[in-house]
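Risk register update: the risk that structure generation would not scale has been downgraded. Supporting records follow, first protein first.
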Amino acid sequence: MESVLLVIHLLLAIALIITILLQRSEGGALGIGGGGGGGGLMSVRGQANLLTRATAVLATLFILTSLGLAILGGTHNRGGSVLDRIDTTTPAGPAAPITPATPTAPVAPAAPAETPSSPAAPAPSGDTVTPPSAPAAPAAN
């Protein structure tokens, strides 16, 4: 039912747009009906009356289908508030607070391991800069 009403609603919208565009333009707007004269099927006044009535009928039907779609869309709603859908299966009493672990005194870092007497990798050769050695102690007299 909802999809049929939606199709009718879209067809009414297209027909409403066409009838509005067919009406005679008074200020150079989008009207494509023109101001034609001469012997047509209908006089200008008769054509304007027909298009005005058609626009009113199509607008009324468009509003009615809009209301119908709104009502049909509302029947799918579960009703109630969003807050009513919150899961309330939590325990009734407050949960026990989590206590932090007791702080401990900082532990002194472990003594550094003995350094090996030989380097782990050979020193690079070539254009590397070696750090300067410490200055020699002055000689005692």
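Supporting record for the second protein:
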Amino acid sequence: MSRPARFETRGDGYERWRSWDPVERKERYVYVHQLLCISDGADPHLVFSNGDYHVHHGNRIRWDNRPSNVSLLDSEKHEQHHRSHRVAGRQRVARADGGRR
């Protein structure tokens, strides 16, 4: 007997659809931001590339799945983007506390 897909929000804010795969006998997931990116014209093969590409939330709010907030980035550029924001955030903290951490 097949089970209907269920919508859920993970504890970290990502929204996804969850369904049972009777052939593989395991849960399968598809994330709303992935579906949105595809509906906005992204190549599904890139969206589901096992990590070569990532769908990025521009404002870093994981449940903000507006088309204007998501974009497809290759994994290296995505990591560089987040790395530069982490460094900038640490610099802001350092300035805010007078350089004491």
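The first strand starts at residue 6 and ends at 9. On this basis the risk owner (M.S.) recommends closing the item.
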